[in-house]
Design brief:
about 350 residues, alpha/beta, two-stranded parallel ribbon, globular, GH, GTA TIM-barrel-like domain-containing protein
């Protein structure tokens, strides 16, 4: 989701079982062509989040929805949009904690996608990153992403995203091709890139990846609504365009993120944490239902990884009753009926 922090039997990202090894060739991977991701993101905002005592409980809750995948988001930061390199901070999940949470997810029977982020301070939009020295930035980015490619290989993570919503630099196809080649030397699993919903058509390196990734925050309504017919109609032209795009690019499309706050008007601006201060659990649930009703069963659609399960205890800036989490809300029941039922 560019403006915010942020499966038939699995989330396109996470998986159980033995993981890929280093240095292999880009072989055919049936799972990217035959399965649909049922996934939920568990982001981190601090170095030790993934070691939180809440982590096992969160993973159990994710599994209980019927999800088969979980996505983890280690994040590096840069102070200015023009900086030439991202770096770790106290808000970056430690490698040790990331390794442990992947192990816990696998033990819980969940597959894993690692989806590293590069962010800016506060509410600044990572899509605005436009480094003054692009060559230096991409060299630093290759070191950043191959670090997580190694970690994904070592932990057996089932999928890796090579980038997330970096519209300010994603038009540099040659540089991204080199990034992807470097990642392939470190990790043999399926790769995607998480493009924002208004970015994906400007990406020209999909042929080098296994899946087209889209963070699916399309506005669906002009005013607050729980009308399923209206929401389904809103998805229809988007779905048709995506089906055609998938056919042209010869890749399935994964919703690497999709989500809705439980606030009145969330369907008018799904990318916003602050649509209103009025809780709207029914609208959030209706939006969940409409997305799944509109896309499940489409062969070109590779599934969805919902943003997000929950904030860590005492870390959320948005009260849980207004936040993206579906936990304990009607939206969770939608998932349970659709996925676990």
């Amino acid at each position: 989701m560019a403006a915010v922090l942020a499966v038939v039997t699995g989330c396109v990202s996470t998986g159980a079982g033995k993981g890929p090894a280093h240095g292999g060739t880009h072989a055919s991977r049936p799972e990217t062509g035959t399965t649909t991701m049922r996934g939920i993101t568990l982001p981190s905002w601090y170095r030790t989040d993934y070691d939180s005592p809440a982590a096992p409980r969160y993973l159990r809750g994710i599994k209980a929805t019927g999800a088969r995948w979980v996505t983890f988001t280690p994040t590096w930061y840069q102070k200015r949009v023009t900086d030439s390199a991202p770096h770790t901070t106290e808000e970056t999940a430690s490698d040790a904690s990331l390794r442990r949470i992947v192990q816990r997810a696998h033990a819980a029977g969940l597959k894993v996608m690692i989806k590293p982020h590069v962010d800016l301070p506060g509410d600044a939009d990572r899509a605005e990153i436009r480094p003054r020295d692009r060559a230096a930035w991409f060299a630093a980015y290759r070191r950043f992403i191959t670090h997580y490619a190694d970690l994904a290989a070592d932990t057996g993570a089932e999928q890796l995203a090579v980038g997330t919503e970096l519209a300010g630099v994603s038009g540099d196809t040659t540089a991204w091709t080199k990034v992807i080649e470097a990642v392939r030397d470190h990790y043999d699993g399926p790769l995607t890139y998480a493009a924002n919903y208004d970015e994906y058509q400007h990406i020209h390196f999909w042929k080098d990846l296994d899946l087209i990734g889209i963070d699916a925050y399309w506005p669906l309504a002009e005013k607050a609504t729980t009308d399923p017919a209206l929401l389904n109609r809103a998805w229809a032209p988007i779905r048709q365009k995506l089906a055609a795009y998938s056919a042209r690019r010869h890749r399935r499309i994964l919703f690497t993120e999709a989500g809705y706050v439980s606030q009145r008007g969330t369907t008018t601006a799904p990318y916003s944490w602050t649509v209103s201060t009025h809780p709207a659990n029914a609208e959030q649930a209706a939006a969940y239902r409409a997305l799944l009703d509109s896309f499940e069963g489409r062969k070109w659609w590779a599934g969805v990884c919902w943003w997000m399960w929950d904030d860590w205890p005492d870390s959320g800036e948005t009260p849980a009753r207004l936040a993206y989490t579906p936990r304990g809300k009607p939206a969770e029941e939608v998932l349970r009926r659709k996925w676990a039922g």
